[in-house]
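Q: Fold this one first, please.
A: Sequence and structure below.
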Amino acid sequence: MPIILGIDPGSRVCGYGVIQCQGRQQIYLGSGCIRTQSGDLPSRLNIIFNGVTEIIKQYQPDEFAIENVFMAKNADSALKLGQARGAAIVAATHAELPVSEYTATQIKSAVVGTGRAQKSQVQHMVQQIFKLNSAPQADAADALAVALCHYHTYQGLIAMGGKAKSRSYGRYK
């Protein structure tokens, strides 16, 4: 019954989502956002690192998945996003969690079925999958989608590898 922590990185709002996998069922454990104050970038990165560290302590995940940086029109924004990702990844590696990275297209495809899905579609699908009363905030929904993508990716590897291969990923059975 592995627990997966998904992260949707951001230097101002960093979404997180935590799921537990039981067989082919995914169970919602929690989600939310780490919000940084309008301080300098090093202070915001410290808040992200400390926030992810606290989430890891609280939920004790077995796996860590994060969205890859995409190149936006604004290079400065992409660099800050990369640094926010780095702060979250360091928190995960400090806790000795395996880190997996996925593109936005992979994440949207795994959850919605198309890599060009809108944020509202991701929110809706996450709400439906976990049978939540309301749609999670966009960044938290994206983080839950990252965790789902990670789970589905490994389920696909197991299926492609057959029974012999599935033993190496036994916790996902």
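Q: Good. Now the second chain.
A: Here it is, same layout.
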Amino acid sequence: MVVRSAGILLYRLTDASEPQVWIAHMGGPFWEGRQTAAWSIPKGEYEPDEDPFAAARREFTEEIGAPAPDARYTSLGEFRQPSGKVVTVFAAETDFAVDRVASNTFQLEWPKGSGVVKEFPEIDDARWVGLTEARGKLVKGQLPVLDVLTERLRAEGRFDA
């Protein structure tokens, strides 16, 4: 059975019509100190009978600590990850802001084999970044999401780079 996730990619255009996207740094010891290919769109798994958009909104709230903004969302499509997981992504243009990221947490034995279980945030940072920076930060499997967003903005005549 295919594991499915759903996520939200928020975007905004700067005064110079340059797109920026809202992405999140993954928490926990594996990602600590890493910047390259260590960021993700806010997303999470959902059950086969669950609505992907409802799941995306729920996961955004859990990972960012604030509800997904009220905005006009559109589907960017489904993206198969190197792991085989399929991520359904919804996008919205908004000037979202939070005072701080307050992610839910997970437990992990750390250091591995120590018998000590610690709690870590799923997300330890989130911010607006330009598309070029996002390409260096996002995990490889999510780069096609940026391509679809970029092509959509070009087709709408809103971005010409």
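Q: Anything worth noting on the second one?
A: The first strand starts at residue 4 and ends at 13.
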